[in-house]
């Protein structure tokens, strides 16, 4: 899920659609048909980008007209998606690659090999960070040269990745932990225990929020002390996003989204 500055966008995996939600009224204002099994969403400042796991494609959506304006073929089983200010980056789970897309021409301009089964992707202002689920690592990519410049070992089966402005935060699903990485030294500087099977992670400007799918909770972490300061019970959480005021959590299986006031 993602916030475009006005609306929340949530993927509906089994329906092959994306829901657009008004964060004030909490109403679904549009439902957009995309490819098969949509997974993640990103906003590039103009358009919404959605990875279609079952189609091997990425859908580009105009958030005003709610129309799909382009469909880009990438690698097999695309999952994560992020914008670096110039390009769109998509993780391709099965081939262990990341596709770099020009958002204007909607074409793939580079394919970067990373670890086994990449899922999450984020941009820290300088580098692209990718979680490699089956390798237990995170790849750091230079978005100019498209080269992997570092590989950082984290916990078991990392999924989500987010930036707090200083550090990289990675959820380790089968460890029940979150790794904090210094992006300069590429060292893990802290490991925080959260709930079971943590998946997505987001930063609200002050705190880190982690969805614990196996526990049905969301953990709130102080990024300075590395302490869990609150645990919020929701549904079966997977995705998480911040709209500037609230935390939004997508709940797997129930077809719902939880809104948490920060």
From TrEMBL:
Gene3D superfamilies (UniProt xref): YVTN repeat-like/Quinoprotein amine dehydrogenase
UniProt-recorded name of the protein: Unannotated protein
UniProt source species: freshwater metagenome
């Amino acid at each position: 899920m993602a916030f475009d500055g006005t609306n929340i966008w949530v993927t509906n995996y089994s329906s092959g659609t994306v829901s657009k939600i008004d964060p004030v009224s909490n109403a679904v204002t549009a439902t957009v048909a995309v490819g098969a099994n949509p997974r993640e969403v990103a906003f590039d400042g103009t358009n919404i980008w959605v990875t279609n796991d079952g189609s091997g494609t990425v859908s580009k959506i105009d958030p005003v007209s709610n129309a799909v304006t382009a469909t880009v073929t990438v690698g097999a089983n695309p999952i994560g998606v992020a914008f670096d200010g110039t390009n769109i980056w998509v993780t391709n789970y099965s081939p262990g690659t990341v596709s770099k897309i020009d958002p204007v021409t909607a074409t793939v301009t580079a394919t970067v090999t990373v670890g086994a089964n990449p899922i999450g992707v984020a941009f820290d202002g300088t580098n692209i960070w990718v979680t490699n689920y089956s390798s237990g690592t995170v790849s750091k990519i230079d978005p100019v040269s498209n080269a992997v410049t570092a590989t950082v070992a984290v916990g078991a089966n990392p999924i989500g990745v987010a930036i707090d402005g200083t550090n990289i935060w990675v959820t380790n699903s089968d460890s029940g932990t979150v790794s904090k990485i210094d992006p300069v030294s590429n060292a893990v500087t802290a490991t925080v225990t959260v709930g079971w099977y943590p998946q997505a992670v987001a930063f609200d400007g002050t705190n880190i929020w982690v969805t614990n799918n196996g526990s049905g909770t969301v953990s709130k972490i102080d990024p300075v002390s590395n302490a869990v300061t609150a645990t919020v019970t929701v549904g079966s959480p997977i995705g998480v996003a911040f709209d500037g005021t609230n935390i939004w959590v997508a709940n797997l299986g129930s077809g719902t989204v939880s809104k948490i006031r920060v």
